[in-house]
C-alpha cells in the first residue's frame, strides 16, 4: 500500500455478535481499498469505552479510539437504528472525540435497520457531524430490512451493495476536499469575506 494513501477508518456502532452493521462497513471498506485507500475497522466490542464522563474524558480506551480516528483522512460511521436514532455505543464513542478528530474531515454515514429505511439514524448522525465541523458526504448508505439483504455476512442485495460500495469509494474520492475553497465565488460571498476579515 502506498504510504501516501488516504486512510479511512470505519466505526462500527453495534455490540451485537450477529450485527449487520460490521459486515456492511466491511463492504464499504473493501470498496475504499479498491479505490487505493488503507482502511481500518474500529470494532467497539474490542475497546473499553465507558459511559462518557466529562471529568474523565480519557477513561478506558478513549485515548486510543480518539488517536485512531484522528489519524484518518476519512471516517465512516455505521450504526443500527434503535428507536429512530443511532446506537448509544456510537454516541458514547463520539462523545470521546471532538474537533481534533472530526473538524474538516470527510465523513460517510451508514445505517442498518431490521425494518424500514433508517432515515432517523442517518439524520441524527449528520447533525452531530455538522456540530463537529465535519464535511459529511451527500451520499449515504442505508440497509433496511437487513435480514433479507444478507446471506451470512455477505451483502447480496445488488442495489444496497452498490450504495454501500459507493460510500466507500466516495470517502476516498473526497477525503481531502477543501470545505472552503478559495475561489472567485467565495471571495464574492459576504459570509466568506467576513470569515477572511
Automatic annotation (TrEMBL):
Stretches the record annotates as Disordered: 178-197
Cofactor list: [4Fe-4S] cluster
GO molecular function: FMN binding; oxidoreductase activity
A GO term from the CC aspect: cytosol
UniProt feature, compositional bias: Basic and acidic residues: 184-197
The NADPH-dependent FMN reductase-like domain, residue ranges: 7-147
Chain ranges passing through the membrane: none
Family (UniProt): Belongs to the SsuE family. Isf subfamily.
UniProt name for this protein: NADPH-dependent FMN reductase
Amino acid at each position: 500500500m502506498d504510504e501516501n494513501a488516504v486512510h479511512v477508518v470505519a466505526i462500527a456502532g453495534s455490540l451485537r455478535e450477529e450485527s449487520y452493521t460490521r459486515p456492511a462497513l466491511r463492504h464499504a471498506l473493501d470498496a475504499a481499498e479498491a479505490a487505493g485507500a488503507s482502511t481500518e475497522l474500529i470494532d467497539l466490542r474490542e475497546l473499553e469505552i465507558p459511559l462518557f464522563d466529562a471529568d474523565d474524558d480519557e477513561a478506558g480506551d478513549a485515548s486510543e479510539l480518539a488517536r485512531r480516528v484522528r489519524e484518518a483522512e476519512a471516517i465512516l460511521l455505521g450504526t443500527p437504528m434503535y428507536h429512530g436514532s443511532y446506537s448509544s455505543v456510537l454516541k458514547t464513542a463520539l462523545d470521546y472525540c471532538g474537533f481534533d478528530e472530526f473538524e474538516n474531515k470527510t465523513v460517510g454515514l451508514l445505517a442498518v435497520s431490521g425494518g424500514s429505511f433508517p432515515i432517523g439514524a442517518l439524520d441524527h448522525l449528520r447533525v452531530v457531524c455538522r456540530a463537529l465541523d465535519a464535511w459529511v458526504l451527500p451520499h449515504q448508505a442505508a440497509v433496511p430490512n437487513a435480514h433479507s439483504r444478507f446471506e451470512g455476512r455477505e451483502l447480496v442485495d445488488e442495489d444496497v451493495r452498490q450504495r454501500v460500495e459507493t460510500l466507500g469509494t466516495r470517502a476516498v474520492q473526497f477525503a481531502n476536499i477543501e470545505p472552503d475553497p478559495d475561489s472567485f465565488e467565495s471571495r464574492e460571498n459576504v459570509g466568506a469575506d467576513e470569515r477572511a476579515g
